[in-house]
Amino acid sequence: MKQASLTQLFALVDVNNFYVSCERVFQPKLEGMPMVVLSNNDGCAVARSAEVKALGIKTGTPWFQMEEIAKKHGIQAYSSNYTLYGDMSNRVVQVLRAFTPNLEVYSIDESFLRIETLLKSYSSPSDLGQTIKEKIKATTGLPVCVGMGESKTLAKLANYLAKKHPQFSGVCDISTMPKEELYQWMAETPVGEVWGVGRQIAKRLQAIKIQTVFDLLQASPQLICQQFGVVMERLCYELRGVSCLPLEEVTPAKQQIVSSRSFGQLVTSLAALTESVATHTARGAEKLRGQHSVTGALTIFIQTNPFKQNEPQHHQSILVPLSDPTDNTLTLTTAAIAGLKKIYQSGFRYKKAGVIFSLLADKPTVQQSLFDDIEVKGKSAGLMKALDSINSRFGNTVIRSAATGTAQAWQMRSDKRSPNYTTRWDELPVAR
């Protein structure tokens, strides 16, 4: 398709091996070395470098199963550093917003952009893609690939080709590619690589002789809809260059917020569980305020380790309704601890606890009660605003409820965590 006839053009910018790349930015010695980033409590591999992928290690492989091969091949392992990854993700988005405000942050390492209005300043979409790639590398140190197409699904496919095939140099533009060449690439790409086609759907498609992306392109959207539903029908049209999925420039508010973590060591005392529940409540309340919502109910849950069959098991939860929906950390913490005390039983070794916020509502539209004290509510909102402002500037645990404790020995293991290079003054890298 000729550039002049494009009514809309999407780009997908995706950071390569995001967690691994974030670690390498601040430790250049890791470049080219095989490395993995581990899940909570250093359990299994959630991110792998290209060198580790070449060794055949799959995502989700437990670390204890990798230790021998890690010693043999010198694999470096790091605990997940979510604070670092979140901050680096925000920096990438800031670079992208300098190109266009028409942007959807799809995940921590992926963003969609509408770019047709930018093309007048560049010789081609590929030239724009290379500029984006180089700007992000120069600004953040992170390597990205850019895929471009007339729909989000085609942009996602183009990004896949840019990652897998070196001849694209990290930027693939499907919109100006000759149809014969595009169809050839589609014929060589498994149907499971189409955005939105999961493993189970891919098996069902293969059962009806749809093996590749090109096979899906040729299939009747109406027949696909009958067997797989309207979402798959839209993907068929998207592959044909008909955009059915617009940018979500404003992230929709979550209808439920879950805050939980497994413990680094088994917990038996109510005091430790109270610290954990209070900590999760504070995190959830911060997320509530971040999306301008309030919650009308909390669910508190605790559970033992289901894999330890030789130990007594206890899995319990309780719903705590609130008479007045709120986002106040202190109010929510009081309610959560009260619920925890009702379900806690001594004599068990607990592995996990958490809090679920439900019955969420948009704060500005919540109906006021006849008995609401406007002055008290105003002071509460001011306190929470000050709390978030200080924690945002100096670290998210600078000011917190006393109920969260100090030592927090129950916190998940992260023995291999790298420093928070970008968010803590005392962990800044030092040049000598």
Quick summary of this structure?
The chain has helices at 18-26, 50-54, 63-73, 82-99, 125-140, 152-164, 179-187, 199-207, 213-218, 221-228, 230-239, 270-290, 329-343, 374-394, and strands at 10-15, 35-38, 45-48, 76-79, 103-107, 110-114, 144-149, 171-173, 257-267, 293-304, 315-326, 350-358, 361-362. With 432 residues, the protein is an alpha+beta fold.
Describe the structure.
The chain is of the alpha+beta class and 432 residues long. 40% of the residues lie in helices and 19% in strands. It contains 14 helices and 13 strands. The chain has helices at 18-26, 50-54, 63-73, 82-99, 125-140, 152-164, 179-187, 199-207, 213-218, 221-228, 230-239, 270-290, 329-343, 374-394, and strands at residues 10-15, 35-38, 45-48, 76-79, 103-107, 110-114, 144-149, 171-173, 257-267, 293-304, 315-326, 350-358, 361-362. Strands 5-6-1-7-8 form a five-stranded mixed β-sheet. Strands 9, 10, 11, 12 and 13 form a five-stranded antiparallel β-sheet that branches. A three-stranded mixed β-sheet has the order 3-2-4. Helix 4 (82-99) crosses helix 5, helix 10 packs antiparallel against helix 11 (230-239) and helix 12 runs antiparallel to helix 13. The radius of gyration is 25 Å and the shape is globular.
